[in-house]
Amino acid sequence: MLFHMASNHQTRPGAGELAKDCIKGRIGVVMAEVGGRVQMRPIRGGLEWDAEPDQVVALSAREELSARLAMRNNNSQVGL
Questions:
Q1: What is the pTM of this model?
Q2: CA–CA separation, 5 and 23 (whole Å)
Q3: Please, which contacts does 4-13 make with residues 24 or more away whose CB atoms are closer than 8 Å?
């Protein structure tokens, strides 16, 4: 899977970027913005969820590193 690095120049992460849903406390990939909601998918795959646009934020460097490491570990366990 290819995920884009979040840009520090944006106020909100765009499609394909890792982000945090502050209400649910979940980290995922921004898939799209539809009907005033941000659709996000878990980093390991699974069902998308809707998030409030003003509650979706870019990850800190530490959160992003941790998320990417978790993805890498998961991929190695399933043989990708």
A1: 0.76
A2: 22
A3: 5/64, 6/58, 6/59, 6/64, 7/58, 8/58, 10/58, 12/38, 12/53, 12/56, 12/57, 12/58, 13/56, 13/57, 13/58
